[in-house]
Amino acid sequence: MMRKTDPIETEIDLGDSDDEDLDADLYKDCEEPQLLWKAELGDRMDEEEAVSPLVDVSDTKPLLNERDPRGVNDCLKVSFEDVIAEPVSVRSGDRVWIWSNALFEVTRVWLYRIVTVLLAVPVSIITGLIFAILSFQHIWFFSPCVRYILIITYWLQSLWSIVLDIGVLPFLTSAARCYVGIRLRLTQE
């Protein structure tokens, strides 16, 4: 039994040790990982630490790094050599080739950035409006109209199914059985 005069040993983990086994022992009994808050000052804070651990970083990071994850615009992955290619028989000077390559890349990148700054927001607004209108028409007009037509023409679908089952299916089945025994053998003479 402990007396009140005995010192109590308390161990505080400041997280500055490199011992991985200690961290594994701390969390081996936990069912869910615990959220750890990091407090850093000023410039020492990198982007992932600045975001609250309650925010799922995976939702925002792919938007910045991978902007075409489905490869919609693979045809636009063009380099200078894909556009301008000199055969061995006809060549310009090496410096002309290098400067042409550099100017092509700089012009392509900066003009794209300038046009994007000027037109990206208006074009995205217009595209959003168009897709919103198309979605509205599809949800509130086309789908109900198609459903209405299917309900009204159910008798026609049934009649067509009967015609196919009685008239066309036996004919095609007989033709298939007639031709199933035919075998072609191609030989080269």
In terms of per-residue confidence, which ranges show pLDDT below 50 for 5 or more consecutive residues? 20-24, 26-49, 51-57
Structure annotation, total helices: 6
Cα shape? flat
Q: From the structure provided, what is the oligomeric state, counting identical versus distinct chains?
A: single chain
**Biggest sheet descriptor:** none
The chain-level mean pLDDT equals 76
* Span of the ends, CA to CA: 106 Å
**Would you tell me the structural class of the helices and strands?**
mainly alpha
As a percent range, the share of strand residues is: under 5%
User: Measured on Cα atoms, how large is the radius of gyration?
Assistant: 35 Å
Order of helix and strand elements from N to C terminus: HHHHHH
Would you report the number of β strands? 0
Helical content class: 55-70%
Membrane topology: Peripheral membrane protein
GO molecular function: molecular adaptor activity
Function: May act as a scaffolding protein within caveolar membranes. Interacts directly with G-protein alpha subunits and can functionally regulate their activity.
Keywords: Cell membrane, Golgi apparatus, Membrane, Transmembrane, Transmembrane helix
